[in-house]
Amino acid sequence: MREMICICCPMGCRMTVEKTADGYLVTGNTCPRGKAYAIDEMTAPKRMVTSSVPVDGGNFKMVSVKTAVSIPKELIFKALDSLKGVRMTAPVKEGDVVVKNTAGSGVDFIATRNVDKC
Amino acid sequence: MKRNLVIIGGGPAGLAAAIGAYDEGERDILILEREPNLGGILNQCIHNGFGLHTFKEELTGPEYASRFIREVKARNIEYKLNTTVIKLSGEKRVTAVNETDGLMNIDARAVILACGCRERPRGAINIAGCRSAGIFSAGTAQKLVNMEGYMPGKEVVILGSGDIGLIMARRMTSEGAVVKAVVELMPYSSGLNRNIVQCLNDFNIPLKFSHTVVDIKGNGRVKSVVIAPVDEKLNPIMDKAEEISCDCLLLSVGLLPENELAKQAGIALSPVTGGAEVDENMMTLSDGVFECGNVLHVHDLVDFVSEESAHAGKCAARYIAGKIESGSERIKIGTFGGVRYCVPEYVYRGKASEGIGLKMRVNNVYRKVRIKVVADGVEIAGKNKQIVTPGEMETLSLTAEQADKLKNASDVSVGLEVK
Ligand SMILES: Cc1cc2nc3c(=O)[nH]c(=O)nc-3n(C[C@H](O)[C@H](O)[C@H](O)COP(=O)(O)OP(=O)(O)OC[C@H]3O[C@@H](n4cnc5c(N)ncnc54)[C@H](O)[C@@H]3O)c2cc1C
Ligand code: SF4
User: Fold this and answer.
1) Is the ipTM of this complex over 0.90?
2) pLDDT for residue A72 is more than 90
3) Domain count within chain A
4) Distance of alpha carbon A67 from alpha carbon A75, whole angstroms
5) Is A33 part of a structural domain of the chain?
6) Residues B211-223: tens digit of each pLDDT
7) Chain B residues near residue A4 by CB distance under 8 angstroms
C-alpha cells in the first residue's frame, strides 16, 4: 500500500493505493482523475515541464513554454536540456511550437504566451 | 474626470471584476494597471496548475491570464497600462499618474481595489548576519529567472515553504542550480501539497521542518547560512546548528495584502487578513469601495480569486445602479475552533435572495473536522473534511435559504468541530 497526494488539481486529495489481483484499489480520491493519477504514479509517472526561453524583438524578454502534455518523469532534465540555446523571434503566439518532440517523448514544447513585435 | 467604476489593478482580480461588472450591465468601466501588461503576478508564474476548477484544464499562469484578458478585450472594457494609482480619497476620488495623461483625478461612483499583495521583506523577519548580496525574496527571484532570464545563484537555500519558495526550488533546479534545503520554521508547510510533491519530492530536495536560518555569512556575496532546529516556542537550539555553504538565499516568508491606498482612504482593515473588512457584496465599510483578490486576503488558488472578484464586480455594478441598499444594519460573522478568519466578515440583515460564499483559513493542521456555520446556536450549514491546513483556504457555499437564516440571526459564527 502506498499513500500519495493527488496533484491533478489544487484540491490535493490524500489517497491510498493498494495492488490487487487485477489492478489497483484507490481510495481517498474525490474524482476519477485522482484514480487515474494514482495508477499512473504507480506504473508510469508523468509531469508537465515548464520553463522560459529568450525572445528577440518583442514586448517581453522571455517567452514562457510548456510541454503540450505531460511527459515521463525521468525525461524532465533531458527535456529541459533541449531548450538550451533556443531563442525565439517576436511575434510569438500562444501554442506556437518551440521545440519539436522534446527528448524523444513525442511531445512538443509550446509557447504559453503571446509576445508581440515591438 | 467622472467614471462610474474604477478598478485599481489589472491582475486576475481586476480582470474578473471588470467582466463581472460588465456582464451585470455596467458599461462605464476603467481598469488602471501600473505594469506595462495586464495579468498581474500571473505573468511570472509560468508553471502549470492554474484554472482546473474554472476551465477544467490545467493552465500555466500566462495562459490563465490571457483567457481573462481576451474576455476584457472582447467587451471593449477600457484599461490604462503603466498607470499607477497614488491616492484614493474617502470620497472615491482616484488619483493616478502615467506618462501620457500626467496626473489624473477621477471621481468614481464605485471603486474596486484589486491591487494584489507583496512579499514580506527580510526586515519583517529579522535574521542576523551580513547584508551580503545574493539574498532575494522568492518572488523577485521568480521574476528574474522567468521574465529576465537571469539566475540569482548556483547553490541555493530557501527559507520558508510557502508556494513561491517551493515553485522556485523546482525552477532553480531545472535551470541547473542545486537547492540544498528548504528550511521551514513551522512543523508544517504553508504551501500546497501538490507543490511539495512536485517541486521538492520529485527532485529529492530536503524540506527541514521546525528549522530556521540563524546566521548569514559572507562579505560582499553570501558564502553560507547557518540553520538550526527550533523548540516548541520557536527559539533556535544553537548547539544543533549546522552551516550550509551557498551563494544565494531565497526568502519565501509570506505575503501581505497591498493596502496602502485603503489605509489612506481611512478604510477599516482586518488585523488578521491585512485586507479590508467586507460584507457579502465584497464592499468595504467605506460606501461604494469594494475589494477582492489578494489585496483582500491572500489566496493560494487563482480560481477562487476570479470567482470572488467576478462577484465583487457584479455587486459594484448593482451598487452603481442603486440596487444595493447600503448603510443598513450589519452583523459580524464570528469565528471559533481554529478558524482564523472568515471573509466576508459581515453580512447585512434582511432577506437573502441568493447564496453566500464563505472563505476561511485555519490556524493549524486539523484532521477529521466539520466546518460549520452556526446561527443562534444551531448549525445551518457545514461540511466534513479529512484534513484542513493553514496553507489551504477552505470554502463553504450557503444556499439562498441558508443565507437567509444567517442574515436573520442575532449571533453567527463559523468554526471547526473536531470529531
Ligand atoms: C509565486 C506564485 C505562485 C502561485 N501559484 C499558483 C498556482 O499554482 N495555482 C493557482 O491557482 N494560483 C497560484 N498563485 C496565486 C494567484 O496567482 C494569485 O492568487 C493571483 O494572481 C492574485 O490575483 P490578484 O489580481 O489579486 O493580484 P495580482 O496578480 O498581484 O495583481 C494585482 C495587480 O494590481 C496592480 N497594482 C497594484 N497596486 C497598484 C496601483 N497602486 N496602481 C495600479 N496598479 C496597481 C499590480 O501591478 C498587479 O498587476 C500563485 C501566486 C504566486 C505569487
Ligand atoms: S482526486 Fe480529483 S479532486 Fe482530488 S485532487 Fe485529484 S483531481 Fe483534484
Assistant:
1) no
2) yes
3) 2
4) 11
5) yes
6) 999 999 998 899 9
7) 197
C-alpha cell at B262: 485603503
Q: State yes or no: cis peptide before A45, omega within 30 of 0.
A: no
Domain membership of residue A23 (yes or no) is yes
Q: Decide if pLDDT at B300 tops 60.
A: yes
**The three cell numbers locating residue B39:** 495579468
DSSP character at residue B371: E
pLDDT in tens, B163-187: 999 999 999 999 999 999 999 999 9
State the pTM of this model.
0.91
What is the CATH number for A80?
A: 3.10.530.10
* Ligand 1 touching residue B10 (CB < 6 A): yes
- Measured CA to CA in angstroms, residue B299 lies from B294, B356, B408 at distances of 6, 18, 29
* Domain range enclosing A36: 2-43
Give the nearest partner residue to B60 out of A54, A60, A64, using CB atoms.
A64
Per-position b or e across B56-78, b if 16+ CB within 10 A of its CB = eebbbbbbbbbbbbebbeeeebe
Kindly tell me if the per-residue pLDDT of B78 is higher than 90: yes
Same domain, A17 and A35: yes
Q: How far apart are CA B7 and CA B27, in angstroms?
A: 13
